[in-house]
């Protein structure tokens, strides 16, 4: 997890996909990001952004009874 506030134009990883920071909202610990090569943006908690890809296995919420 990120220990410092990312800056605009930083390239980090959101799980296993590289993203570019578009805008940072430090009061809310949020960052507007976009996937590398994409135009659409979305918001994430910047504490989950990492300098490397996360390739660990994980379970889908739908397998645990969650609804998507």
Detailed description of the structure:
- The protein is an all-beta fold and 68 residues long.
- The chain has no helices and five strands.
- A hairpin with a 2-residue loop joins strand 1 and strand 2.
Could you give the topology of this structure?
Elements: E1 11-14, E2 17-25, E3 30-35, E4 41-45, E5 49-50
Antiparallel strand pairs: 1-2, 1-5, 2-3, 3-4
**Backbone CA Rg:** 13 Å
Summed over residues and divided by their number, the pLDDT gives a mean of: 89
Strand content: 35-45%
Number of strands: 5
Classify the secondary structure makeup into a structural class.
mainly beta
Low-confidence residue ranges: none
Distance between the termini: 26 Å
Order of helices and strands: EEEEE
Q: Strands of the largest sheet, in order across it?
A: 4-3-2-1-5
Question: Can you tell me the overall shape?
Answer: globular
Report on the biggest sheet: 5 strands, antiparallel
Number of helices: 0
List its salient traits.
68 residues; mainly beta; five-stranded antiparallel sheet; 5 strands; 38% strand
Write a short abstract of this structure.
The chain is mostly beta strands and 68 residues long. It has no helices and 5 strands.
């Amino acid at each position: 997890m990120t220990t410092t506030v990312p800056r605009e134009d930083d390239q980090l990883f959101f799980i296993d996909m590289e993203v570019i920071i578009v805008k940072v909202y430090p009061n809310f610990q949020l960052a507007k990001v976009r996937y590398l090569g994409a135009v659409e943006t979305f918001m994430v908690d910047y504490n989950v952004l990492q300098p490397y890809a996360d390739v660990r296995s994980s379970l889908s919420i739908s397998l645990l009874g969650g609804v998507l």
